[in-house]
Amino acid sequence: MANTAKRILKNFTPEKMSPTRLLRKIVPGSEPAGEPVIELPCRPLSFPPADTVSPPSPYPFLIDSNNPLEELGRKYLPTKREHNYLPLYWMHFRDIRHQVRKFCEIGLQRDASLRMWEEFFPNAEIYGIDIDPACREFEGGRRRVFIGDQSDRQFLGNVLNDIGGGLDIVIDDGSHLVDHQLATFEFLLPALNRHGIYVMEDTGPCVGDYQRVTVNTLQQLAANILYWPDDYRPEDWPKLSAFPDSSSWADRNVIGVAVYRWIAFVFRGDNPGDNPYLQRDS
Q1: Is the predicted pLDDT of residue 30 greater than 70, yes or no?
Q2: Catalytic one among 92, 176, 180, 195?
Q3: Residue 255: is its pLDDT beyond 90?
Q4: Active site residue 176
Q5: Residue 29 main-chain phi, psi, to 5 deg
Q6: By CB atoms within 10 Å of each CB, which of 143, 224, 225, 232 scores lowest?
Q7: Do 268 and 193 touch, CB atoms closer than 8 A?
Q8: 182 and 212 in contact (C-beta within 8 Å)?
Q9: Lowest model confidence (mean pLDDT) among 6-20, 61-75, 80-94, 148-162
């Protein structure tokens, strides 16, 4: 079994373990090649009945809908507005919108989304990928369109070579097929910049993934984010400012996953080095 799974499993006794979920291997280095599918232990959660009445909230939603991205959504009317994705994008993109230099969206169909992002990210080159040659008509301004299959790694590699790599943000709104989503993710996540953001739109039953394979796969990244060396004492966590050579690429480069209804965000970074308060050897 993979080292990541071993680290988790050793903290559970058979009496504490409940039915497990099977998760697909993802991300280069997340587990050795040829290892079996990881089984992560979990226990059922207990909550009140579904009809339990909650106290009223002083705010209608966790994100204010009166923001610049929502205004652009009303202007361009991209389909992502109908899924209520724009408040989530605003929350995750607002602090970096002027620093983003290379943005890519997979799956176009119309030019509404590309034009919205072009206006939202004023200093970025906006790249689009679609399998339909007619989408070339959407080029103009800072927008470039590449025609090809998102599951074709050679094609994606050619796109990266053409733009000089270093993507800041990738949004996958392409075929919505599980294999395509995960294959594209495996290839492009390592190609993002050090603090890039990868987004998968339309996951789960809304696109026929009734087993939630894509989202269940992303769940295993939590073990990478919470990487812990064997035999390291809990009280020494402030001293863990760098991971040992035995840690994987995903351990060191994935710092967060956020899952919402039908959409997931994966955040790259320096794990654990992004924490400036850790103790470092002088």
Answers
A1: no
A2: 176
A3: yes
A4: yes
A5: 90, 0
A6: 232
A7: yes
A8: no
A9: 6-20
- Rounded-to-integer distance, Cα 242 and Cα 246, Å: 12
List, as one string, the DSSP characters of 92-158. Answer: HHTTTTTT--EEEEE--SSSHHHHHHHHHSTT-EEEEEES-GGGGGG-BTTEEEEES-TT-HHHHHH
In whole angstroms, give the CA distance from residue 213 to residue 139. Answer: 34
Are 250 and 235 a contacting pair, CB within 8 Å? no
CA distance 127 to 35: 36
132 close to 111: Cβ distance less than 8 angstroms: no
Q: What is the DSSP letter of 244?
A: -
Task: Give dist(CA 196, CA 254) in Å, integer.
Answer: 10
Number of neighbours of residue 60 by Cβ within 10 angstroms: 8
Question: Given CA atoms 232, 235, 239, 243 in this order, what sign does their dihedral have?
Answer: positive
d(CA 30, CA 159): 25
Domain at 68-268: CATH architecture: 3-Layer(aba) Sandwich (3.40)
